[in-house]
Amino acid sequence: MALAAAAVAMTAGFAMPQRTAAAELDGRVIDVYAEISSSSTVGSDGRLWFDAQTSHAGIPSRPDPLNVPIRTGVERVAGLDLGTVIRVTGQVMVTDPGERAALVMFGTEVEIVAPAQGVFAVAAQVREDFVERAVRLPEPGAGLLPGLAVGDTRAVTQELDDAMLASGLSHLTAVSGANCAIVVGAVFWLVALCGGGRTLRVVIALTALAAFVVLVTPEPSVIRAAVMAAIAMLTVLCGRPSAGVGVLCLAVAGILIADPWLSATPGFALSAAATAALIVVAPPLARGLARWMPHPLALAIAIPLSAQLVCGPIIALFSEQQSIVAIVANMIADPAAPIATVIGLLACLAAPIPPLADLLAACAWLPAAWISTTATVSAGLPGAQVAVIPGIAAALLVAVLSASIGVVLSVDGIAARRGVRGISVVVLVVAGALVGARMLLTGPLVGTTVPEAWAIAACDVGQGDALVVRSEQQVALIDTGMETEPLSTCLSALGINRVDLLVLTHFDADHVGAAASVVGRVGTVLHGPVGSPEDTRLLGELEAGGAVLIDASTGMHGTLGEASWKVLWPRKDSAAFQAGNDASVVLEFDGGDVPRSLFLGDLSATPQRMLRDQLRGSYAVVKVAHHGSADQDTGLYDLLRPAAAIFSAGVDNDYGHPRAETLALLEAAGAVALRTDQQGRILIGMDAGELVLWTERAAEPAPAGEPDDSGEPDESGGPIEPPDDPGGVEDPR
């Protein structure tokens, strides 16, 4: 261990001069020459993201030698395969010291300097041929099949990706260590079936493993599994099979010596932990479960259960959701994964014979469809996920629950002690009671947790917008946030099954990321300017689900129940603001027990100043622009004079929203600050001409030495005096 630690320190030390030089480029627009070192995935921003190793970086046309890993996002172009040398122009940002990539680059221009050569070029062509063949198959399953077989996740939709995550099946979305084991085992068995000796079996299995790693690209989990499989094969070749824990530790130590930054990669940590769980935890769990069921069934349950118990605390460090249905979903879906992988790889190898390749791809589609359907159905079950605040506390809580489950189900070692078992039973009973109460409050009893007389709701969807306006049981949803689960939870709590008017202010992921979850339940879509093919695809899905699409522009108006709405921005066919934040749809609502309210999207100060001419009178409620960023127009809020200002932001978000100066600006305008990051879901209604407020949580107290003079009511709700003239104003048009 001392030698391994010293070697890791030396590797990190040798890399520091180059990483320090890279840090000096922070915030600059530069040219980078690099070789792509990973597969590419489509990010939430629509860019194609991949890892690369730089050779030169610096001012455009004169970059200096620099050798560091970099995470790069560019517009989608063909040919960005593993081993391709590229030149990218764009802005770079330095990362935290513990991150594997020294820089993150937002590319504006990309040029292929040298395409992939040799085996990398062959692997890229094989992948492309298989992906093209797979996506011609029907859904569900077509988009998932390339990920199961060759690690290409570009065809996986955001909706399916969310479902895989919610159901605990995300490890199947792309190639992982399990696939390496499947390939090695299948080749080893096939050679043995043909009469090959031990040496021949090991050599061919190692060769197949190397080819497989090149085909699927060397991701962290694949590297770990490949190294471990190679060591295991060598021990077989030497006639001295080693214990699994020893092989795993040797593999992990060797990988971390070669690349210490993998230690901070969640995928690598989860991969190693899951493997350790299968070696250490699964056997005693299987023996314990065998008390109540046949041993083969007990083993089948113990494998996904052990991995979930060990990986749960790690996931809780960075994830806001914990899957409750993961164990059952894995039991149902996991048997199909080896079939899809092996047949999918055979389809790749059969590419020179198209009819055979098509037949094999169709055969691999069936298990892929089974996995996809399992994910979708299990993710849609009530209480499939539990929201947690990621961090050490959440990890410790999940670890206690995981340990308790393990103790109760096992029969060996410490689990045999009566006191330990009794404590574990108590922990699980308490946890079960709390989960049951939550399911009741978000299911049959959901109506008891929400007051009836609300007209405006701000959903707590993290760093994003999702606001609801209701009048006479008709509902408008303004943006959807990024994640499906928080939006679905909020709409369920509010008793909303159908959206009459969906407003997509603009197409940033934090405003439209969860829009797919309401497809088929929307009457009309009012949207901002379209800026990319992804935007068009999303609108196409909504239209196919029965929605009527309207391209919003200034002057449009309509009704929602007894309330009226009016579009104040953007201007039609504006050359200055074509798409994005500054072309956000700005809506005004008024009448029918809906307080006069204004929703500003993500406008910056410049369009805010131009918007002033569209406004008449003050507003009772204002959704502050861009989550409360610092880029605000003071004159606009002086003109609006809102009684309540809604800030839709995520807890401890990286942007510092809402900014202190913006909070002070709204306070100076006379508004009460309502923050989803502190108060959760926020509801506003009208009672005898006064605003009435309900919040899911109490607001955080003001810092010591600063008076809390916000006038904000507690959780039970209370009145807020509206501004002068909160009523409707005749449309000057």
From TrEMBL:
Q: Which residues cross the membrane?
A: 172-192, 199-216, 245-262, 268-285, 297-318, 324-347, 359-381, 387-411, 423-441
Q: Which domain of life is it from?
A: Bacteria
**Which controlled-vocabulary keywords does the entry list?**
Cell membrane, Membrane, Transmembrane, Transmembrane helix
Compositionally skewed regions (Acidic residues) per UniProt: 706-715, 722-733
UniProt keyword Transmembrane helix, yes or no: yes
- Compartments (UniProt record): Cell membrane
Q: Which SUPFAM superfamilies match?
A: Metallo-hydrolase/oxidoreductase
Q: Where is this region: Disordered?
A: 695-733
Outline the extent of the Metallo-beta-lactamase domain.
463-650
Query: How is the protein disposed in the membrane?
Result: Multi-pass membrane protein
Q: Which InterPro entries match?
A: ComA-like_MBL (IPR035681), ComEC_N (IPR004477), Competence_DNA_uptake (IPR052159), Metallo-B-lactamas (IPR001279), RibonucZ/Hydroxyglut_hydro (IPR036866)
Main location group = membrane
**Name the record gives this protein:** Competence protein ComEC
Organism of origin is Microbacterium murale
